[in-house]
Amino acid sequence: MTNTITYTGRYYNGTRDALLPKIQAAMSDYRFTHVLRVEQMALVLAGQWGADLEAASIAALTHDYAKERSDADFIATIKAQNLDPELLKWGNNVWHGIVGAELVRSELGITDPQILSAIQKHTTGAAVMTLLDKIIYMADYVEAGRDFDGIDEVRALAQTDLDASVGWQAGHTLAYLAAKRVPIYPLALETYNAWAIKTQKNG
Questions:
Q1: Local structure of 134: helix, strand or coil
Q2: Once rounded to an integer, what is the mean pLDDT over residues 41-54?
Q3: In whole angstroms, what is the distance from residue 170 CA to residue 92 CA?
């Protein structure tokens, strides 16, 4: 499906073929293959739920653009962009989405609010999420390389009840983090609380 995506310039000033080397240069081969799988799944979900395929492709390709950046880069960006200073208390798992969107904006020239929002929310979710937010949140979680208890269930759910799949991920992610006894970013808690009713009907 990716071969049929033609970038129009609405979201990125260049072609997909021009964007790919920039993404690849920013990460390991392992991370890059993950990003390509997320794009494939995002396009499947975008087709299923009527989202813009071009926006889904770009958001998926750039969602982990900053994943392998140094802590120093993130801290410098938080300070330079006057982002919430509370972010300094967290780490890469939070930063690579929320702060990474700022690096996508400044380094790749991608400024579309819906794409940047999807990058920001792809690990934490949010109480209110756009269609593209939900698609990238779920595509990252259920891409073809993922393998964990319940993956087949939630992968199928994402294609039949997208909102319920968001609730499923929010609940299971919260349980995983709690079991590890690690601090939980407040936005992840808000996501769980907002989507809990959708989780309940799917166990």
A1: helix
A2: 98
A3: 19
3-state secondary structure 26-71: CCCHHHHHHHHHHHHHHHHHHHHHCCCHHHHHHHHHHCCCCCCCCH
In the structure encoding, which two tokens stand for residue 161, read together?
């009840």
Residue with tokens 């972010």: 87
Q: CB–CB of 178/184 below 8 Å?
A: yes
Neighbours of 11 (CB within 10 A): 17
Give the tokens for residue 136: 């990238």
Hunting for tokens 């904006």 — which residue is that? 105
Sign of the torsion angle spanned by Cα atoms 181, 83, 111, 51: positive
Distance separating alpha carbons of residues 51 and 59, to the nearest angstrom: 12
Q: Provide the token pair at 202.
A: 């799917």
Length, in residues, of the chain: 203
Report yes or no on whether pTM surpasses 0.90: yes
d(CA 74, CA 141): 23
Cα–Cα dist 157/77, whole Å:
37
Instruction: Select from 64, 106, 110, 63 the least CA-distant residue to 83.
Output: 106
Q: For 135-186, how does the pLDDT look when each residue is reduced to its tens digit (9 = 90+)?
A: 999 999 999 999 999 999 999 999 999 999 999 999 999 998 899 998 899 9
| Rounded-to-integer distance, Cα 66 and Cα 95, Å | 8
